[in-house]
Amino acid sequence: MKKFLSAALALCLAFSLAACGGSGSSTPASTAPSGGTAGSGAAIKIGGIGPVTGSTAVYGNAVKNGAEIAIAEINALGGQQYEMKFEDDENDAEKAINAYNSLKDWGMQILMGTVTSNPCIAVAAETANDNMFQLTPSGSAEGCIANDNAFRVCFSDPEQGTLSADYIVENSLAAKVAVIYDSSDPYSSGIHDAFVTEAQEKGLEIVSDEAFTADSNKDFTVQIQKAQSAGAELVFLPIYYTEASLILTQADKIGYEPVFFGCDGLDGLVSVENFDTSLAEDVMLMTPFTASATDDKTAAFVKAYNEAYGEDPNQFAADAYDAIYAIHAAVEKAGVTADMDASSICDALKAAFTEITLEGLTGKGITWDASGAPAKSPLVYIIKDGVYTAA
Question: Which UniProt keywords apply (predicted)?
Fold first, then answer.
């Protein structure tokens, strides 16, 4: 059961950020987990969609939890109130559309979601037709923000691929690199394609480039052996943590110990059930947030999250936390109120988002342009004793 966070903590966190910026569960202002006093007036209804069950549930639950904390803090200030209802899509596009329709029936005025790229692309077509403002915390495929009503908090897939190649070259991590990616997933393919292009431009030799699909994501023997035979000193994994845990386990069985480097999809690796976390030692990943950071904002958020949910937040929780504060900043900038319809709110927020700056957990001075993409700097972490530390 969730513990109630103190009103003092909620107010402290909210004042530090507000100026700058299970399935079907609902978090109204009166029952938010912070224990803060809700303000008067109608609440703006924010819908959330993501996987809270299934193989990527760690992402969806983190997004749901991070958003709940942010909403509770903002509501505790007594100004504009928010209510969130979160629907499970199990990382499935069809279920995501069903969830979206359910949230519309509920009266959703703003969508914070979806969490993963395939469902996000499917839902983005619906929000564009409805002129519903959509802010995805973590949908990184280019198609997630192809329409002018859609924005995101996280980096795009191509950005992650390009920045990863640059980092490997600039820090001389390896001369020969192998890539293992999911060709059936837009997230993985998008990062892969940009990585390969940038690697070639920077003179980084890719000696093995092997794909798998959602139908062949359990046995990676062939891909690992090809990387090993080619002499790859680093294996780039633009994939999710579940498959990465299998690759690390299977590489260990044949004594292959290259540097493993991934992106934000690897966040959650050390929490995979029945995975030997010692195999994650020295794995590197590019991600904008880690719970081990010592700045005041991160420390306060981690404390609040731990008190509410009994565990440390991952990057997806931080993305969602920033997403809610960004929505709130844009709402205040545009003068949006709860009595406005979703389409009017969308028009107002599209303009306001290009005018706000967010001092967030996932970046300082985050800004957005009309494309919906954020501008912020990446960070690289290395796993040491099960903890993400700055590389």
Answer: Amino-acid transport, Signal, Transport
